[in-house]
Design goal:
The complex is a heterodimer of chains A (116) and B (108).
Chain A: E1 4-7, E2 10-13, E3 19-25, E4 32-38, E5 45-51, E6 57-58, E7 67-73, E8 76-81, E9 90-97, E10 105-107, E11 111-115
Chain B: E1 2-5, E2 9-13, E3 18-26, E4 31-37, E5 44-49, E6 53-57, E7 60-65, E8 70-75, E9 84-92, E10 95-98, E11 102-107
Parallel strand pairs in B: 2-11
Antiparallel strand pairs in B: 1-3, 3-8, 4-5, 4-9, 6-7, 7-8, 9-10, 9-11
Classes of the chains: A mainly beta (116), B mainly beta (108).
């Protein structure tokens, strides 16, 4: 099946610093990628939809200036958590849609962010 | 908005059958997914229903009734490795909204 790779898998940073998470579709081109956040024992919450070559669409309540998304190519989307704080500590997961008519998503491995 | 409900926890014995129900009320509907998620890992795809009826795939089957806003995931011949969280997700305009997940514990 399609492969989506996410990096880094784990990152620990100090409060106030910025962290970049990469999401790559390895064997297909993804015009749309999605970024989710999952707190412990909770479901995945969609943060934003990343569209290649255009601005991301953010869900209500998600600060676009804090969570910067760049989708510069058909195989790469990045999420940058700016000025991270302990409450931003979470599991961040990206996904990419394989084909426009199925809606099926393939997920990256996830990135565990811990802000000290 | 999206409202997706599923039970929080279920426990079953190895070799048994478990049915996880999911009800949804969403603005628009393009399909319903079931995902399996082990602790600390990303979800993996199990099934996709867009039309009413039962989709069978090995030990796992998924059912959908669009008129009732209802789906279930049926796990047969349970194995210990099936202990995981099972997420019901509804797609609308190709954005997925997830339920809170059902934690299934399989006991020997």
């Amino acid at each position: 099946g399609a492969v989506v790779s996410q990096h880094p898998s784990r990152v620990i940073c100090k409060s106030g610093t910025s962290v970049k998470i990469e999401c790559r579709s390895l064997d297909f081109q993804a015009t749309t990628m999605f970024w989710y956040r999952q707190f412990p024992k909770q479901s995945l919450m969609l943060m934003a939809t990343s569209n290649e070559g255009s601005k991301a669409t953010y869900e209500q309540g998600v600060e676009k200036d804090k969570f910067l998304i760049n989708h510069a190519s058909l195989t790469l989307s990045t999420l940058t958590v700016t000025s991270a704080h302990p409450e931003d500590s979470s599991f961040y997961i990206c996904s990419a849609r394989l084909a426009a008519n199925t809606g099926e998503l393939f997920f990256g491995e996830g990135s565990r962010l811990t802000v000290l | 908005g999206q409202n997706i409900d599923q039970p929080t926890e279920m426990t079953a014995t190895e070799g048994a059958i478990v049915q996880i129900n999911c009800t949804y009320q969403t603005s628009g509907f393009n399909g319903l997914f079931w995902y399996q998620q082990h602790a600390g890992e990303a979800p993996t795809f199990l099934s996709y229903n867009v039309l009413d009826g039962l989709e069978e795939k090995g030990r796992f089957s998924s059912f959908l009734s669009r008129s009732k806003g209802y789906s279930y995931l049926l796990l047969k011949e349970l194995q210990m490795k099936d202990s995981a969280s099972y997420l019901c997700a509804v797609t609308n305009d190709y954005k997925l909204s997830f339920g809170a997940g059902t934690t299934v514990t399989v006991r020997a």
